[in-house]
Specification:
alpha+beta, 4 helices
């Protein structure tokens, strides 16, 4: 599996896109001022925006709330969990253990 992919519990291969500064700006524009202040919503929106494809089928960058909801619906809980864990990176304890500290 490539570094830009993750597999969820259902066995689906989820391809990730890197959210650069411009993509993050676009996401905040899509969310608008009110939702951009909602940390939980922004977190899930970032998961939706980070998905490029599921099992080789492209997922477009969300152009509005409906796009965010559609991407999250397609991912389901297993997909959201897998993508969120990948975006969060390794836990601090794991990094320290691997570093020998």
């Amino acid at each position: 599996m490539r570094a830009d992919q993750v597999q969820d519990k259902a066995g689906r291969v989820i391809e990730l896109r890197r959210l650069g500064v411009v993509e993050q700006l676009r996401l905040f524009k899509v969310l608008g001022p009110e939702l951009s202040e909602n940390r939980a919503y922004v977190g899930l929106a970032r998961v939706a925006a980070a998905v490029a494809a599921v099992d080789g089928v492209p997922v477009p960058f969300p152009g509005g709330e409906a796009g965010i909801e559609a991407a999250l619906e397609r991912l389901g809980e297993d997909g959201v969990e897998a993508v969120a864990a990948t975006l969060a990176g390794p836990a601090v304890e794991q990094v320290l253990a691997e570093a020998g500290n």
